[in-house]
Write a structure and sequence with these properties.
The protein has 217 residues and is α/β, with parallel strands linked by helices. The chain has a single domain, classed as TIM Barrel (Alpha-Beta Barrel), CATH 3.20.20.70. Helices cover 52% and strands 17% of the residues. It has an eight-stranded parallel beta barrel, surrounded by six helices. The longest helix has 17 residues. It binds erythose-4-phosphate. The site of erythose-4-phosphate has 11 residues, from helix 7.
């Protein structure tokens, strides 16, 4: 499964990229606002740090506006993926941009039939929001399982990018459900390494090693 970082903070992204484990980045208008950066500069810098897909979201709500913003964003760097909302206009713009060879990440997906429409519109990624469904008392992970089943039934090539991830367990369950990618807040990515038995195991090995008085080099 590909791991993306959900952030527009360049320092956070550099730190995560140093792991060698990060395949891409997702941003959204809220994350750009939080970064305090000009969008074009931030996206260009992020694209230079991480060579994989970097999602940059259009904010127009009409088709012509989405197309103009999408084409503009796609020119920032070859690895930009244009993010569009799962609205009727968003999917119309998705069809046109996809036909032009611009990759589109259809975001704010909350149902399997929405994901079906996005695949039919040629989306490169579909972003189902797990955490926001959980917040409403609905099992967000069931949506990932349903989309996986539908895409496999009809051999749609759209990649499932599990989003709105709130926990390490979300990552585990998304991987088990066959999600192609997951986008994680940096603190969830950092938590993936952690297990108390790893920490105590390292501590015990080092203690025993010290008692030998040896050094390897
Ligand atoms: C992904 O593309 C979204 O930007 C993100 O995962 C939304 O997460 P949130 O629901 O925690 O804001």
């Amino acid at each position: 499964m590909q791991l993306f970082i959900d952030s527009a903070d360049v320092a956070e992204l550099r730190a995560a990229a140093a792991s060698g484990l990060i395949d891409g980045v997702t941003t959204n208008p809220s994350l750009i606002a939080k970064s305090g950066r000009k969008m074009k500069e931030a996206i260009a810098e992020i694209c230079a740090i991480i060579p994989g897909p970097v999602s940059a979201e259009a904010v127009a709500t009409d088709v012509e506006g989405m197309l103009a913003e999408g084409r503009y964003l796609a020119r920032i760097a070859p690895n930009v993926v244009v993010k569009l909302p799962l609205t009727e206009n968003g999917l119309r713009a998705c069809r046109t941009l996809s036909d032009e060879g611009i990759r589109v990440n259809v975001t704010l997906c909350f149902s399997a039939v929405q994901a079906l429409l996005a695949a039919k519109a040629g989306a490169y990624f579909i972003s189902p929001f797990i955490g926001r469904l959980d917040d409403k008392g609905v099992d967000g992970m069931e949506l990932i399982r349903e989309i996986r089943c539908i895409y496999d039934n009809y051999e749609y090539q759209t990649n499932i990018l599990s989003a709105s991830i709130r926990s390490v367990d979300h990552v585990r369950l998304a991987a088990l459900a066959g999600s192609d990618c997951a986008t994680l807040p940096p603190k969830i990515f950092a938590a993936l390494y952690k297990h108390e038995l790893t920490d105590s195991g390292v501590e015990a090995f080092l203690k025993d090693w010290a008692s030998t008085g040896q050094s390897i080099l």
